[in-house]
TrEMBL record:
Organism: Streptosporangium vulgare
Top-level lineage group: Bacteria
Matches recorded under InterPro entries: CHAP_dom (IPR007921), Papain-like_cys_pep_sf (IPR038765)
Protein name: CHAP domain-containing protein
Gene3D superfamilies for the chain: endopeptidase domain like (from Nostoc punctiforme)
One Pfam family matching this protein: CHAP
Lineage of the organism: Bacteria, Bacillati, Actinomycetota, Actinomycetes, Streptosporangiales
Keyword flag Signal: yes
Length: 230
């Protein structure tokens, strides 16, 4: 809500003894009869344009803790070695997702009957979502169990691109396709190695672990960009 500030000096008594407040407009003109038009202060259109240019994720980030890409990568790195059980599930990432409101929202879409259908589901996207939650920036990291839907969320919010920056969420198609609908896997970019490869931290990789990997950029569909403090 925009508030207009009007300077009001001491009330001056009119000839009939009633006191009429003098309102001073932005131009400095005193209006004693209560019917004058007070000019509003000039609007900072540049500030308005800058606010309008922000993405929904950037606006959401203003209400969140300031978190760097390095912090998110540290949280992800500390999970290296976490392994799924013999059924392909049982990690803390599964447990967290099943207990979240998001699981109920995605259940029908993913063809499940109840949230426990996620107990042994592929969990690379759950891992990325869990890291965002632990960092306190879930509204700008997103949360999902389906890699394609998660990538589309970044794209629909204007945070999708082709540059591998540290902390970016990276989406892979093992066949080398570039369509979001063909995405097979997701993780975090740790480094661009400058040789056509990136170093990543991923869940549900290798033998069902969280691992640090080196991947060819040729397998990357694109990158989602959470909002970081630097």
């Amino acid at each position: 809500m925009t508030h207009r500030l009007i300077s009001t000096p001491r009330a001056a008594c009119a000839i009939l003894g009633a006191c009429v407040a003098l309102a001073t407009g932005a131009t400095g003109t005193a209006l004693a009869d209560g019917h004058g038009v007070v000019n509003a202060p000039p609007v900072d259109t540049k500030a308005q344009d800058a606010k309008a240019a922000k993405t929904p994720l950037q606006i959401a980030a203003e209400r969140l803790p300031k978190v760097s890409a390095a912090k998110v990568l540290d949280i992800a790195s500390k999970q290296i070695g976490v392994r799924e059980n013999a059924q392909g599930g049982g990690t803390k990432f599964h447990s967290w997702y099943m207990s979240s409101p998001r699981a109920k929202e995605t259940l029908a879409r993913d063809g499940g009957r109840n949230v426990y259908d996620y107990a042994n589901a592929p969990w690379c996207a759950m891992f990325v979502s869990w890291v965002g939650e632990m960092a306190g920036i879930r509204p700008t990291m997103g949360w999902d169990a389906y890699t394609v839907a998660h990538a589309k969320w970044f794209k629909n919010n204007g945070h999708w691109g082709t540059i591998p920056t540290p902390g970016a969420v990276v989406y892979f198609d093992w066949a080398g396709g570039k369509s979001i609908d063909g995405i097979d896997h997701v993780g975090f970019v740790k480094n661009d190695n400058g040789d056509g490869t990136i170093t990543t931290i991923e869940g549900n990789t290798g033998n069902g672990d969280v691992e640090q990997r080196v991947r060819p950029i040729s397998q990357v569909v694109g990158y989602g960009y959470p909002v970081y403090s630097n």
